[in-house]
Write a structure and sequence with these properties.
The complex is a heterodimer of chains A (113) and B (116).
Chain A: E1 4-7, E2 10-13, E3 19-25, E4 31-37, E5 43-49, E6 56-57, E7 65-66, E8 76-78, E9 87-94, E10 103-104, E11 108-112
Parallel strand pairs in A: 2-11
Antiparallel strand pairs in A: 1-3, 3-8, 4-5, 4-9, 5-6, 7-8, 9-10, 9-11
Chain B: E1 3-5, E2 10-14, E3 19-21, E4 24-26, E5 32-39, E6 46-52, E7 60-61, E8 64-69, E9 74-79, E10 88-96, E11 104-106, E12 110-115
Parallel strand pairs in B: 2-12
Antiparallel strand pairs in B: 1-4, 3-9, 5-6, 5-10, 7-8, 8-9, 10-11, 10-12
The chains are: A mainly beta (113), B mainly beta (116).
Chain lengths: 113, 116
């Protein structure tokens, strides 16, 4: 149902590498979100965007950064990955209307060795 | 600030029986929206049901229904005639109508196991 895509699905990298997690949606949604899911399965908001050129940090402090140059694209970047960044990252989007549901991507499982 | 609490980390139910997952929340807003999401082993997040706080009638979607108690700030999910495919993590979530970014706040999740 959801037209929101995350790549890669799985990523294993070494410490110190720069990585970018991709998230794209084809629904024209203004609002996009990145959630981090810890091993205990709790979801924490780390970044969100209202639209092009708008990005804000979420509730959970994160060393990652995001950009929103195009409506459909909301990549997340880690300049220097560490083992503490090992987690599941979920991207989501929704229209501007308040009661519209959140569409989630399939997630990226990141493992930093 | 808004919070969502799921007090049951794990639950199990026999196939075809009924199970209720608990969720309580706190928000200072009068208008807000509540959701239950399901995350199966595939890790995809799927919307199960949603409730608008200003509606008194409890939402129902096929085998899924909620018991929304606004005064008690409670939003439980009832799954009737449980099926093996219902095995998943279930997240309760809240979105205020007026907070900045209309961000979704999730509870910690309840792992549901449906046993054959």
């Amino acid at each position: 149902e959801a037209d929101i895509y995350q790549t890669p699905r799985y990523l294993v990298i070494g410490t110190g590498k720069k990585i970018t997690l991709e998230c794209s949606q084809t629904m024209g949604h203004d609002k996009m979100y990145w959630y981090q899911q810890d091993p205990g399965m709790e979801l924490h908001l780390i970044h969100y965007s209202y639209g092009v050129n708008s990005t804000e940090k979420g509730d959970l402090s994160s060393e990652s950064t995001v950009s929103r140059i195009r409506t459909e694209h909301f990549p997340l970047t880690l300049e220097s990955a560490r083992p503490s960044h090992t987690s599941q990252y979920l991207c989501a989007s929704r229209p501007g209307a308040t009661n519209e549901k959140l569409f989630f991507g399939s997630g990226t499982q990141l493992s930093v060795l | 600030a808004q919070t969502v609490t799921q007090s049951q980390p794990e639950m199990s139910v026999q196939e075809a029986e009924t199970v209720t997952l608990s969720c309580t929340y706190d928000t200072s807003e009068n208008n807000y929206y509540l959701f239950w999401y399901k995350q199966p082993p595939s890790r995809q997040m799927i919307l199960v049901i949603r409730q608008e706080a200003y509606k008194q009638q409890n939402a129902t979607e096929n085998r899924f229904s909620v018991n929304f108690q606004k005064a008690a700030k409670s939003f439980s999910l009832k799954i009737s005639d449980s099926q093996l495919g219902d095995t998943a993590m279930y997240f309760c979530a809240l979105r205020g109508a007026y907070n900045a970014g209309n961000m979704l706040t999730f509870g910690g999740g309840t792992r549901l196991m449906v046993k054959p």
